[in-house]
């Protein structure tokens, strides 16, 4: 997974072509991974993905405190999709395509407070284990 993330860094954000959900899907696809209910990101939005992922993974959804060390998850809320991994020291790595005018990034070692403030449960994010 990390190799696919690294090979897709610094890509320009393009709405509908290489935005957050398309980028996350392509990274997972290139690495041979998937999340149930998260497919065909073109022509849809994060709110639809959120509902599809929630329905397909109802027995395997997590909040940020439940993320297992070393495992990658798809994080998704009503407006953003991203990839996240929890480190053994409790920090988080976040790979994402963020917004128009930016490029895809991979932030390492984000504190739990910073992660929860930017991506966590207060934003109604759900996390599905990447298979």
TrEMBL record:
Domain of life: Bacteria
Protein name per UniProt: Uncharacterized protein
Originating species: Gracilinema caldarium (strain ATCC 51460 / DSM 7334 / H1) (Treponema caldarium)
């Amino acid at each position: 997974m990390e190799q696919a993330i690294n090979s897709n860094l610094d890509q320009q954000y393009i709405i509908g072509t290489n935005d957050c959900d398309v980028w996350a899907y392509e990274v997972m696809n290139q690495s041979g991974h998937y999340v149930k209910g998260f497919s065909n990101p073109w022509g849809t939005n994060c709110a639809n993905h959120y509902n599809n992922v929630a329905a397909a993974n109802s027995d395997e959804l997590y909040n940020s405190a439940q993320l297992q060390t070393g495992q990658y998850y798809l994080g998704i809320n009503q407006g953003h999709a991203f990839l996240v991994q929890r480190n053994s020291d409790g920090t988080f790595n976040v790979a994402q395509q963020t917004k128009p005018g930016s490029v895809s990034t991979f932030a390492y070692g984000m504190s739990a407070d910073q992660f929860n403030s930017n991506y966590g449960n207060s934003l109604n994010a759900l996390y599905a284990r990447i298979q």
